[in-house]
Amino acid sequence: MNLASHYVCDDCHARTPLDTPALLCPACGGLLEIEYDLTRASREILTRAAGRRDIGLWRWADLLPVADGTEPLYLGEGDTPLLTTRLLGDRIGIPNLRVKNDTLMPTGSFKDRGFAVAVGFARSLGVEEAFTYSSGNAGASFATYAARAGIDATVLVEDVANPTKVAAISLYGARVLRLRYRSSLEIFAGVSALAEAGFYSFVNFINPVRHEGMKTYAYEICEALGWRAPDVMVHPVGTGGGLWGAWKGFRELRRMGVIDRLPRMIGVQPSASAPIVRAFADGRTTAGAHGDATRTVAQSIAGDAPIQGGVRVLRAIYESGGRAVAVDDGDLFEAMRLLGAEGVTAEPSAAASVAALLRARAQGWVSKDDVVVAVVTGSGQKQPDALERAAPPPAGDVRADPDELLAVFGAPVRSGG
């Protein structure tokens, strides 16, 4: 019982059928959103989804744009753990803190939620060739799912991208082009021109499907909390598809009567390049260029300008009564260490949600009684140089000698040893 019905434009509200490979609104060029006939939704959908955990996020197919008879591009995406923290919540002063660990996705980042759905949808429309741009994680995810779908993929990867991530994109079979630029605004102008020329785009928001996969955050989190929404959800923000997608999912659950309130959404950016934070501080609904993306270790969320002015990200923050928060690199390394003690290996950008909570709690934006979900979006193994910088050094060297080892551990040396 798929409930997806049509696209609707954010600006002119024109409707577009779902059986066309639409990107921006054909009438005015505005951003498109997929609408669902939620009047037909029922608890039966949730009951059916609960019994199909073997197919991950695809158990929510009734609430995704999935064509009838389409086989999902399933690699194990979705249903990542919502961890109750052992030490972290007490350290920050939020005992009810949970960590949504998307480092365990197939390619090691939350991007798999969006690309599994968006690439599968494009395949059902007959798309054979497509592109995206990326700082690394999105490119790897796109390359993987495009290969599974038989789509010829090109990734425009930022020239400052981490070499490990760039290698993964090539390994998964995509054509990689290094992108030289002075500002993110140049990137958005270029990718928009490609889309307008007829090349199918998987760039966030220009593609109206990627954040449909991201909304499964909301479904999984509310289900794990006994069909209650958290008080606060914290998400790192680059283009902001994860935060916007989650916000859409929470709103859909409330429209269906499954939850009775919505969480406050906190978006996090690095201090060196925080255009969304700057716009929020100024009370604006669009963000311009601000900062220097090369001056932070948080590569995955570093950009001096957000796509489409960040209008959807800012809308989610304002509508939810949330905030936009900037964090320094030192905060990110500290958050990586704190997450490590919980068994979660996060790259710096992924640890930004925890870094933001350290600040939010200290300044009273989050209370000790709040139920808070911090999304950890990508594995630290994908940025090994940063992992080495964050980790404490080894305690020292010791010879592989029984007596030396016993002495180091404080045990008596063996008699006659």
UniProtKB/TrEMBL annotation:
Organism taxonomic ancestry: Bacteria, Bacillati, Actinomycetota, Actinomycetes, Streptosporangiales
One annotated GO biological process: isoleucine biosynthetic process
EC numbers: 4.2.3.1
One Gene Ontology MF term: threonine synthase activity
InterPro entries according to UniProt: Ser/Thr_Dehydratase, Thr_synthase-like, TrpB-like_PALP, TrpB-like_PALP_sf
Keyword Endoplasmic reticulum: no
Co-factor(s): pyridoxal 5'-phosphate
Swiss-Prot/TrEMBL keywords: Lyase, Pyridoxal phosphate
Region (Disordered): 381-401
Protein known as: Threonine synthase
Transmembrane segments: none
Keyword Zinc on entry: no
NCBIfam families: PRK08197.1, thrC
Positions carrying N6-(pyridoxal phosphate)lysine: K111
Family: Belongs to the threonine synthase family.
Species whose genome carries this gene: Actinoallomurus iriomotensis
Domain Tryptophan synthase beta chain-like PALP residues, every copy: 75-378
